[in-house]
Amino acid sequence: MNFFNNLFKGNSSRNKSKEDQEREQSKFMPKVKVAIEERFIINFIDNGGKFLYSENYNELNENLSLILKENNWVKEDLLITNNKIKSNYKLPNSIKVNQENSKCFVTDCENLIADDGSILISSNQIEEKNLSDFPSNLIILSETTKFKNSIGEGLAEIKSKSKKIPSNITTIKNFQISQEKDFLSYGTSAKNLYLILLEKGTI
């Protein structure tokens, strides 16, 4: 079933008043847990992230072009440190690798964490560098198979699928550069972040 069909299935209740919803739910029934995809997207957007959905690789490249147009960037402004990303996501060859003076870093991620809307990354994406070493603009390419409920769940999957566990594992959560940091985000680098999510299994 399509990601958005899954995401919005049964969400007509959003149009009902809070009182109507409370009357429909018995006080003896457990609360319904919001779907993992919806929880992630709500928290991700609350964090200041920008979300674009793609059903296939053509739409992914179209969404990438829209981001470039919105920011007056050209493909030469994009930085990709891992050339496999270009082939994995069928990106144009004109996007350069290891480019200096880039305006936006394009990468994949380990997982998408629903509980707080954060992006889990590791040395597979940023090597042994700090996030602050990269441009303040970031485009994450991911797939609908990468949703995880919690950071612990994401770490467990990394451990189970990796012959060698990657180092430098961290999360990106602050997507509003101008936002004042609180103590929970101390030491992290705020990023203007776009997430292009690819529907996996439909192509």
Structure notes:
It is globular and about 40 Å long. The protein has one domain: 3-Layer(aba) Sandwich (Rossmann fold). The protein has a 5-stranded parallel sheet, sandwiched between helices. A 4-stranded mixed sheet has the order 7-4-5-8. The protein contains 7 helices and 9 strands, in the order αααβαβαβββαββαββ. The chain is α/β, with parallel strands linked by helices and 203 residues long. β4 and β5 form a beta hairpin. Helix content is 29%, strand content 18%.
The CATH superfamily is identified as NagB/RpiA/CoA transferase-like
Taking strands numbered 1, 2, ... along the chain, how are they ordered across the largest sheet?
A: 1-9-6-3-2
- Roughly what fraction of the amino acids lie in strands? 15-25%
* Spans where pLDDT lies below 50 across 5 or more residues: 179-187
Structural class: alpha/beta
Summarize the helix and strand pattern as letters.
HHHEHEHEEEHEEHEE
Number of domains: 1
Number of strands: 9
N-to-C span: 13 Å
Largest sheet: 5 strands, parallel
**What is the correct CATH architecture?**
3-Layer(aba) Sandwich
Radius of gyration: 18 Å
Helix content: 25-40%
What oligomeric arrangement do these chains adopt?
single chain
Inertia-based shape: globular
Q: Look at the structure and give the mean pLDDT.
A: 82
Per the CATH scheme, the topology name is Rossmann fold
**How many H/I helices?**
7
Under CATH at level 1, the class stands as Alpha Beta
